[in-house]
From TrEMBL:
Gene3D superfamilies, per database record: 3.30.70.100
Name of this protein: BLUF domain-containing protein
Transmembrane regions listed in the UniProt entry: none
Domain BLUF: 8-99
One Pfam family it belongs to: BLUF
SUPFAM superfamilies cross-referenced by the UniProt entry: Acylphosphatase/BLUF domain-like (SSF54975)
Organism annotation: Shewanella corallii
Amino acid sequence: MVLKDDALAFLIYISREAEVMTAEALANLLSSAREFNVSKQITGMLLYRDGCFMQVLEGAKADICELFEKIAKDSRHEKVDLLVLEAAERRYFEEWSMGFCDMARPGDKELAGYSAFLRQGLRAANAPLAPCIPSGFLRVFADDASRRSSESA
C-alpha cells in the first residue's frame, strides 16, 4: 500500500552523534526541534544514550520524510538508519512536539520493553526484524512517561 503524502505516518530512525554533544548542545537541538515540529504539526520523541539517538516522528508522511532527509544531512548526525516508515492509526505522542529521554540516567536504563535493544547498541543490524517491535519500544515509553507524569501531578 502506497502512503499518500498527507497520510498520518510515523518514522523511526537511529543515528550516532558525529561529535560528543554537551548538555547545552543537546538542549539547543531539542529546543529548535520542538519549535520546528510545532510549525509542521510533527510530534514524537527522542531517546538518547551514549552518543546514540533513536527517534520517532509522527505527522503527515511528506513532512516527516522531509524532516528525516534534513536530519540525515545534518552534520551533528552520522550513521543515520531508517528503521520504520509506516501508516499510523493514531498519534502516540500527540502532546509532545518532541519528548526526550536520556537513557543514560540510572532510572531510565531498565524501563521495560526496550532496554535489551539499547544494550546491544543502537544500530540497524541490532534492530528487531519486525517493524512493530521498535514502534512497540516507543509505545512503552509513551505509556510509561504518561503514567509517570500523572503520578507526579
